[in-house]
Design goal:
mainly alpha; about 80 residues
């Protein structure tokens, strides 16, 4: 990992000064994405997990084919 960071620093050192703000913006964006991924994974914020408590137990078994059945019923697709 250290060798990769050293390569990144070397690339940054060789860039013209006017390009550095862009590099910083990109790195901050990557840092924010990394933090969001960590939060999402740690809190398990999937829609299925959030809305599971509202599920009708009688309909859960029908969820797998629900979209297909809706298209067949509405448009006659098969």
């Amino acid at each position: 990992m250290l060798a990769l960071k050293e390569q990144a620093f070397e690339i940054i050192r060789e860039l013209p000064q006017e390009k550095i703000p862009t590099v910083i913006a990109v790195l901050r964006g990557l840092q924010m994405l990394s933090q969001q991924e960590h939060i999402t994974k740690s809190e398990n914020r999937s829609a299925m997990g959030i809305f599971n408590k509202y599920a009708n137990p009688e309909l859960v078994s029908l969820e797998k084919d629900a979209w297909k059945n809706a298209m067949v019923g509405k448009h006659g697709f098969n």
